[in-house]
Structures are given as C-alpha cells and as structure tokens.
Description:
The protein is α/β, with parallel strands linked by helices. The protein has four domains: about 5-155, DNA polymerase, domain 1, CATH 1.10.150.110; about 155-245, 2-Layer Sandwich (Beta Polymerase, domain 2), CATH 3.30.460; about 250-325, Beta Polymerase, domain 3; about 335-570, Metal-dependent hydrolases (TIM Barrel). Strand 16 (about 495-500), helix 22 and strand 17 (about 525) form a beta-alpha-beta unit. Helix 6 packs across helix 7 and helix 21 (about 485-495) crosses helix 22.
Amino acid sequence: xxxxxxxxxxxxxxxxxxxxxxxxxxxxxxxxxxxxxxxxxxxxxxxxxxxxxxxxxxxxxxxxxxxxxxxxxxxxxxxxxxxxxxxxxxxxxxxxxxxxxxxxxxxxxxxxxxxxxxxxxxxxxxxxxxxxxxxxxxxxxxxxxxxxxxxxxxxxxxxxxxxxxxxxxxxxxxxxxxxxxxxxxxxxxxxxxxxxxxxxxxxxxxxxxxxxxxxxxxxxxxxxxxxxxxxxxxxxxxxxxxxxxxxxxxxxxxxxxxxxxxxxxxxxxxxxxxxxxxxxxxxxxxxxxxxxxxxxxxxxxxxxxxxxxxxxxxxxxxxxxxxxxxxxxxxxxxxxxxxxxxxxxxxxxxxxxxxxxxxxxxxxxxxxxxxxxxxxxxxxxxxxxxxxxxxxxxxxxxxxxxxxxxxxxxxxxxxxxxxxxxxxxxxxxxxxxxxxxxxxxxxxxxxxxxxxxxxxxxxxxxxxxxxxxxxxxxxxxxxxxxxxxxxxxxxxxxxxxxxxxxxxxxxxxxxxxxxxxxxxxxxxxxxxxxxxxxxxxxxxxxxxxxxxxxxxxxxxxxxxxxxxxxxxxxxxxx
Length: 574
Ligand code: DGT
Ligand code: CA
Ligand code: ZN
C-alpha cells in the first residue's frame, strides 16, 4: 500500500500549495503524479530512480521525493508546508466543495478550525456574508459535510476492491485454504462499499484465521474464532472472514453475496416449493434432507432457477426474469474491442499518441479514440483548433504505420457554461469522433445545466456525452439535471452516453445505464485513460454495465471497426 501512501502525501502537498496560492501548474503536477502512482500496477518502492522517471508525469524532482519517502517514511517539503499552514485550515479544506479561498476566509474571520465547528456555524447561518460566501455557498458546505460523513460509512468500490483482492490473494497462499471468494457488495460490484466480506473453506481454519488477523494492515481485531473473524483496517474499514464447510460453500456464498432484498425473494420462493434455504444449504421441509449447498449453481437449481450473476442480485426483476428464462446475457470484459476516451500528452495525458496506441493494441484492442481536452480546460492543457488539426495529421501518419489497428481522431470538447461547444463546428466536422462533457460551472441551476447537456446532445457533431452526470464518488454529487429530458433527447438524436469506467466516476451509474438501454440509447464503456495503467479500469465499467443488465449488443465499443464507423458516420435526424 506504499503507492497509496505516496499518492496521499503528494495530494496533501498539492492541497497545501493551493492554500498558499502557488503556481496552479505545479499543484496540478503533484495531483497528476499522485493519480499516476495510485494506478500503477506495481510497487513503486521496487523501482530505481531511472525507472520512476520513465513513468510519464514524474520528473527528477518528484522521483527524489518518492525515494525520500521510501527511505525515510517522510517528505521534508511536506513537513515544512505543514508547519507553514495551520492544520485547522487543511481540515476545513477536506470538505468537498471548500476550496482554499473559502477555507482561508472562514478560518481567518471566524477562527473555525475543524469540521464540527464549521457545521455549527453553517447551520447558524454565520458563514454567509463573509467575503465571497453567499447563502448558496453555505448550503453547499453543509452538503459537503454530509457527503464527508457518508463517505466515512461507505467507501468507493475503486478504493476497496484492490485492497480486498490483495487480501484474498494473500489468504489463497495459506496452505490449508481450499476455496476462497469475495462476497457481499464487493462481489456484486456495488459502487460504494461498507465492508469487505470474504468466504473460504479450509482443512485447518485456525491457520487461516491466524494468517488473517496477523496481516500487516490490521489495526484492530474485533473478533477471532474458527468460523468467523473480523478485523478493522486503516480508515475504519472492516473485513469479515468466514470459514465454512466444503459442502455448504455454495449456500454460504449465495447467502453472504446478497443482496438482502434478493435473498428475501429467493427464500420466499423456496418456501413456496416446500424448501428451506439458509447459509448451510437448501433443505426439504418434509424430512429436513439437504438437497443442495456445495455450489451456487446447485443452490439456484434446487429452487428451479438458472444461475443468476451476482451483479443482478438486487431485486430489480432478476428473479422474475430467471423464472421466465429471460435473464440477459451480460457483457463480458472480453467483448470489449476498444476504448473511445483516451488522453495523450497533447493535453493532460502522460503518453504520446503512438505509444498509447501500441499499448492499447498489445491489450488486444482493435481501436482507440484519442480524445484530448479542448482549450477551455486550461488547467488540463486543452487544445486550440490549430493544435487539434496538428494532432489529426500526426494520427493520420501513425494510422498508416500501425497495422490491424485503428486510431480514431477525436476530441473531448468542453461544454461551456452557456451550452456552446468549445471548438468551432468546422474543426469538429473534420474529426472521426467528438465526445462532449462538462468540466465547470457545476453549481448552475437545474435548468441551466440541463440546457447545456441538451444542446450538446443535439449538436450534429457530438457522438458521445462523457461522464454525463459529473459525479465523483464521495467527493461530488451528480449534477442536478433533468435526466428524463436528457435521456429522451439522447434517444431522439442517437447520441451515445458513456459509462465512464474511472473508478471514482462510474458515470452513468447502473440505474441510468439500464434506463438508457431500455430506451434504446447507444452506450459506450470508456476508461478516460491518462496513463497506460488506467486502461485496466475497463473492468469497473464493464461491471457497471452488467449491473445495468447490458449485453454486448447494447455497447458500441464491442463492435468491430466497420460497424462502429457506421455509427460514427451516421447523421442525426434533427
Ligand atoms: P454493504 O456491506 O453495505 O456494502 O453491502 P452488503 O450487501 O455486503 O451487506 P452486508 O455486509 O451487511 O451483508 C452481506 C450479505 O449478507 C448481504 O448482502 C446479504 C447477507 N445478509 C446480511 N444480513 C442479512 C439479513 O438480515 N438477512 C438476509 N437474508 N441476508 C442478510
Ligand atoms: Ca458487506
Ligand atoms: Zn476525459
């Protein structure tokens, strides 16, 4: 977890530099480095300085700071900054939506130095009237505090899953372990997670439990027994491990995967059939004989149903669909043929076009779309019309070189606050693919935000709306927009909606994606990759899609190049 610690330190440095009002590009460099380190596939401590510098986005200076952290467990510059900036100020800034300016005013004018005081003051209406703080700001601060509290109870899937997988991989190496699996909301790929549930079978439960409670991340052991142990990791995350008998593993897995609502449905069905179902198995009511339990398939079969994939187990019609034999054939990661949202060094990505294209090809992809930001997004190094056209030339040249692969020339054009697009039509019309998205003005009225999205959806050039609701799990709520109108407009114009697979976004979420599918709106799953490692995020998007009941045919980037081109070249009716 060292990578996470370094990322955290770099983010803190960025926060502190921001409070001090230092160069925004420097601040962004730290944040970008943090992001890239977080998504690395290997431990950065094992890398030489030379190797680190080859990680795009990390120069000599930051590599030195990483070394320093690895060797001394601290970064001098961070310690200095901490001394210069009051901890109260940094605490206030952790509230989503409270930037350095606001934090400073509140801290200096009211002497508020922690979140509890901030909440009281906001409730009493004492913040409004301070320089730059309106009633709306105060409401936003209270909402931010709510979100922070919620975030402590439930953490983003993208943060918890890698940790959980590491724990499972480690327990797998314990000699007596036979079967092991995640259960609960993690196995269902819910977007936020309360705790980690793990299930195992073992020839020596005590050995497994010993290994479990002695893991280095464990901060507290709540319970230790031969069938169940519970521990708490850093940041209050609880992990439960249950060791069960081989012949009830399937029943236990079914039970502890949930959801609770799904299980209730299943149990009712069993009762109607004269059966009893629990975490040990399926039993005949008449004579108590156990008829299933070893595998999940067996359990579902015993109550007359086909296997229901975990992502569907939310009591959203899956039991009824299973009864009728009309469960969807869910999309799988192997169905994905390309990624239609990729950044390069032209804007805030970390690689050149050819480099990232070759990497995508090595993953087995048939195509990608290069979609850098447009100029309105200055802090991300967005492109002017001229730069876009330069990029087009380079892509044409590379496309001639790379065989059996296609780079679509695209852009992620910013939707400005008045709803207009950030690049002229004559530029957009020359591209293979235009995706449009909102990156600023999140706090406009419902009407205004909806209007912006609607006008982008209607644009004859825009093919995809990226991260349509703008949420950042635990940091920013979705925009307040009229989704009914937006879905309707997307349908009328055949404008695709993106399921952004970046783990903090997962936007569209499962519910909207399912609605979109039902309305016949095309969908794409994209990673928004800024560094090659982030292509791995595709699986998060695929699982959102599975939770949305999507099949391969519902998704554009499962199509081959020809079919995808037909969509890209199609004209809108309006
Ligand atoms: P979470 O932890 O809030 O992210 O979501 P889950 O679904 O992992 O919930 P959790 O950890 O409380 O329980 C894990 C599974 O165990 C849950 O999905 C279904 C099962 N379960 C827990 N409590 C009950 C219960 O009271 N009745 C039934 N039928 N199942 C339960
Ligand atoms: Ca759970
Ligand atoms: Zn993007």
